[in-house]
Amino acid sequence: MAYKTKTGSLESYEKGVIELNDDLRKYAFSNIYEVAGKSAPFERVAVVQNLEYVAEAVRVEGDGPWYAAPHDEFAIVMDGEVTFRFIKLADDQVPGHEGGAVQLGGEPNGPRMGKVVARKGHQVLLPHGAAYQLSAASPAVALVQTVDGPVTVKRWTEICETN
Amino acid sequence: MDAPAQKIVATGTDESTGYDSFRLGGFTFARDEYFAHIGWPKGSHIIEIDRFLRAMVRDIGWGFFYGWIFFDDIFGTTNHYGTVDIFAGSYDAGYKAQGIDHLETFPAEVVAEAFTTISKNWISEGYDPLNAPLETGTPIGPKGKEKEGELLRSFIAADRMLGLPGDKVVRTEADGFSINRAFADMDFDQPEIECEPGFEGQLHAINLFDHIARSDITWNPSISAVTRGNICCVTSEEHMLPVIHGNDRNEWFIQLTDEIHWNIADKNTGAPRGRVVMKAGDVCAMPADIRHQGFAPKRSMLMVLENGTPGLEKRYASGELKPYPVDFG
């Protein structure tokens, strides 16, 4: 039997359903492609919140700002092709806030570490001690596993199904 | 009456089927050709053998996972991270009302040894409860030659990220993990990593979909990346989750491909609350006060985000933390 795997994209996705005799806000049901489709480029919109931890849906379009975090982060490309560029930070450049990514004022001084070009289904390490920039020639989507931080955007009422 | 055994004890062999029976504390376990039979001082219960073995093997492999693992609405385990409850009817309104429910707490290693002993005796060659039903034989019938090999394999848990030097490896063809038939239509390429001189090995990326597509087992997550206590688990799901999971904390599902139908019920009573159908790109929280069971018509890829902070289960149980994750403000 030949199987047809269904994935989603900014251009084409099918949202599921939530039918519960309960307060739907407890389930915070959303769709990554829908959220990214309605977001400005590089808004990091929380679609998961686990106490201090989040996952952010990001619409990647053009060249983004530079970010850094005081811990590892990880990005999964969910649509399109994304280039990740990395710059090594000196110890005194590594952000010291509690957690989450912080947006830098521009490209930081420091040696270029290289780049990763990733497509749908690829998971990329955004290592502690490095600044990073996401770029995409065409609109793409990334899901970032991180800590709730200064650039995390929350608009649960807009993105989630409610009763 | 004998004192409850604190280790599993074999209590006999059925002459017609060849399977051993066992006792652990006040619980007894026996099987026939079709069913597992569980007994306790005030009651008994029967579970279809395929479902029982699929649940038991995963319960061992997961290290009893987070919270409640219901083999069905009546029988299961609760993880207290060091000790494990085995219960029967403790979270069923009818059993509770009749006073015929039963719960005993054991050291986790005692339950692991017990479930391993039962599984090994009751699983014969040709059947692997970790495989999808279309990819394995049947457990019904009399005892055959006991299955050997990695029957009780547990999940892969990366320390930082899969594929990093010194960390857990991604699945590959060379290691014997072929792309599953259900994902044969997908294209799998690798991310391109270009390191500047002096930074070789410091950048890292993998094809996570390729790793998931090569899983030879179902409903058995592997940890792919860890940000402090923020744990990314990925798994391939086909047919039905052979347990009903009641978490002791909030967790999140992100549907990566295809779809899964989740039945949702009240954790304490089992009363149905409804269902969630998740399709590719959907995100849904599983609150800490529910139990859920998934059904995947086609093998799909699921990502689960767990908060692995130690002691979280006590903070939810005490009411310090709300049983749902988002404050809408």
From TrEMBL, chain A:
GO terms for molecular function: dioxygenase activity. Keywords: Dioxygenase, Oxidoreductase. The keyword Oxidoreductase applies. This is Hydroxyquinol 1,2-dioxygenase.
UniProtKB/TrEMBL annotation, chain B:
Gene3D superfamilies: Jelly Rolls (2.60.120.10). Residues 12-144 form the Hydroquinone 1,2-dioxygenase large subunit N-terminal domain. Keywords: Dioxygenase, Oxidoreductase. InterPro entries: PnpCD_PnpD_N, RmlC-like_jellyroll, RmlC_Cupin_sf. It comes from the Bacteria. The keyword Oxidoreductase applies. Pfam families: PnpCD_PnpD_N (PF18191). GO terms for molecular function: dioxygenase activity. The keyword Oxidoreductase applies. This is Hydroxyquinol 1,2-dioxygenase. It comes from Croceibacterium salegens.
